[in-house]
Write a structure and sequence with these properties.
431 residues, alpha+beta, five-stranded antiparallel beta sheet, three-stranded antiparallel beta sheet
Length: 431
């Protein structure tokens, strides 16, 4: 805020103006002698500063009756001035962290003002009834006999006109107010209690319920205070850290998933060796017409190298990775992509590794989703957890539609089918 701005807001003379503090002589009306006049320019400047600070603090200087009230008004104005200067400094700094804090502070102030406006409010309109047999005129408004009409009694002219008017009686009405109650936690999420008069409803993830429906559906539900709710919301640094970690875990899971799909598209055993040799000869001949199996084998071989680095910490720990460590990681991933690699072995190994990552992912999601639901951080969406059933189905070698745990069998006529031991249902696979 520039000096000239301060001059306009608080009435302080700018550097270009001259503040005359020279004592002025004046004649005393009582004695007729000359005396000294106090420096009135300085007093007026101080008075303007004091009044403008009071206004900035939300007070009317003309309504302040004593020194204590004026002191309180000035302190409120200084606090408001300090807040505005800090907001301006944060915006001009260009520092994302300071700007984020400033935005959060401003959002909290807006929320505080909004919460005040949500408090029970007594309507300004008051309804009056003409109880006479004749029309009653209030200014330019005519109230027919026996009818009701609302008036805004906050306007002094209308209130004075109505006051004492014979035959005009106020209609007494019981105002019903709506307010927010406690926050109730359930397995599906939090529900907000809304109280209207003597009625209670609960609004949340599954809709709106009255008190009887809500407690019948969630008998174990309990209320929690706003302080308890805020206690579990991560701060901005923790929230962004969780988001970054979840993004890294998602990338790692996608790599394992993609590698497994390539493995299932390749041949096994001698046929895979043939695909490898065929790829060599086609490449030497300058041909690019690889089969699906040959292409899948080559891509899987390249992706394996990326998985070695991505899964180093989980397998061999930190430090410098040796060649022996690299082979340990390859064995953990089911072996090299060669003729001796069997998908029946690779699948369970990858599933176990995938499940470990999913467990950590699901745990991090809890804190992240709490931050998203708090609506403190915009631009982020909730994430969904991954179930163990989804992981098992992803790494199953069973044909699509066949339940996990089914056993492969061959009928006397040579037909292949799968038997679900839980339901004893057969799934016939047609070539």
């Amino acid at each position: 805020m520039a000096v000239n701005d301060l001059s306009k807001v608080f009435g302080i003379p700018s550097p270009t103006e001259t503040l005359d503090l020279t004592p002025q002589l004046q004649t005393s009306p009582a004695t007729g002698t000359l005396g000294l006049e106090q420096p009135s320019r300085l007093k007026r400047t101080g008075s303007r500063i004091s009044n403008n600070l009071a206004r900035m603090g939300g007070y009317d200087p003309m309504q302040l009756s004593n020194a204590e009230e004026r002191k309180q008004a000035r302190l409120a104005g200084l606090q408001e001035l300090s807040y505005r200067l800090s907001q301006t400094a944060a915006k001009l700094s260009g520092d994302p962290a300071r700007m984020q804090i400033a935005q959060q502070q401003e959002a909290q102030r807006i929320e505080a003002r909004t919460s005040k406006t949500k408090e029970a409010y007594k309507p300004e309109l008051v309804e009056y009834k003409n109880t006479t047999d004749n029309d009653i005129r209030i200014g330019n408004i005519v109230i027919p006999a026996g009818t009701k009409m609302p008036f805004n009694v906050s306007i002094p002219e209308i209130a004075n006109s109505i006051s004492g008017m014979p035959g005009l009686e106020e209609v007494k009405q019981q105002n019903v107010y709506t307010r927010q109650g406690s926050l109730y936690t359930t397995p599906e999420g939090d529900y907000r209690e809304i109280i209207t008069g003597d009625q209670r409803v609960f609004d949340g993830p599954a809709g709106r319920f009255d008190a009887g429906q809500f407690f019948a559906k969630y008998p174990e539900s309990r209320s929690k205070t706003s302080g308890e709710e805020q206690r579990y919301i991560p701060d901005f640094k923790t929230f962004t850290g969780l988001n970054k970690e979840l993004t890294t875990e998602e990338r790692s899971l996608k790599k394992l998933d993609s590698y497994w799909k390539n493995i299932t598209d390749t041949n096994v055993g001698v046929e895979r060796l043939g695909d490898q040799i065929s790829t060599w000869f086609k490449t030497l001949a300058g041909r690019q017409d690889l089969t699906v199996e040959e292409l899948a084998r080559g891509i899987a071989e390249g992706k394996l190298q990326g998985l070695i680095g991505a899964n180093r910490i989980d397998t061999v720990g930190g430090g410098v990775m040796t060649e022996k460590d690299a082979w340990r990681i390859i064995s953990r991933l089911g072996g090299d992509v060669d003729a001796l690699q069997n998908p029946a072995i690779v699948g369970p190994l990858l599933q176990e590794m995938y499940q470990d990552k999913v467990d950590a992912y699901n745990e991090d999601i809890k804190g992240y989703n709490i931050g998203v639901e708090s609506k403190k951080y915009t631009g982020y969406s909730k994430r969904s957890t991954i179930s163990s059933e989804d992981v098992a189905a992803k790494f199953s070698l069973l044909p699509k539609g066949v339940p996990i745990g089914s056993i492969r069998n061959v009928a006397p006529n040579g037909a292949v089918y799968y038997l679900d031991p839980e339901t004893n249902k057969k799934y016939i696979i047609e070539d």
